[in-house]
Amino acid sequence: MSRDTNEILDHDYDGIREYDNPLPRWWVALFWFGIVFGIVYVPYYIFGPGPLAAEEYAAEMAAAEAAMPEKKELSADDLLVAQKDPARIARGKETFGKLCAACHVADGGGLVGPNLTDEFWIHGGSMADVVKVITEGVPEKGMISWKTQLSPEEIVDVSAYVKSLVGTTPANPKAPQGEKYTGT
């Protein structure tokens, strides 16, 4: 039984009459495929062995965490050893010259950043404090965090160099800022 595709329906809406045209076959096939796909997909992932999105995310995060190198916590002894190691201080000096000298001047006397050669420190003068300031930065003072650009070892090297500057005489030192630190 063939239908006339130009058959006008009996209803009328504000003077508009419409034809009763069947949907294209590809659209009907896509519709039925979607229904069959849903009948298979939903039970597989909701009730069956298929992983849910949260489970897949947790698995990918665990794999990424396992692939990352192990983070070593720095102890006070590690910092003390770095502070006395001439090779690490030399590496720190090189990094300091490239990245830090723009604000602290190559000799540590301070320009935009504070003077690093005196015994006054704004954020604490211990080796651990210097590592923290370099790692986290001081955004309110304009110092960026270097943890994304330097490895933990490079941060310790720069910190060791900064601590080696204390007591030196820069060419044009900035006035002291912060609290006097008398430790090592």
CATH architecture of the largest domain, please? Orthogonal Bundle
CATH topology of the largest domain: Cytochrome Bc1 Complex, Chain D, domain 2
State the shape: elongated
CATH class of the largest domain: Mainly Alpha
Count of discrete domains = 2
Structural class call reads: mainly alpha
Separation, N- and C-terminal Cα atoms: 99 Å
* Strand coverage percent: under 5%
- Helical region count? 7
Describe the main β-sheet briefly: 2 strands, antiparallel
Order of helices and strands: HHHHHEHHE
Summarize the structure.
The chain is an all-alpha fold. The protein has helices at 25-47, 53-67, 76-84, 86-99, 101-104, 127-136, 152-165; strands spanning 120-121, 179-180. Helix 3 packs across helix 7 (152-165), helix 4 packs across helix 7 and helix 6 (127-136) packs across helix 7 (152-165).
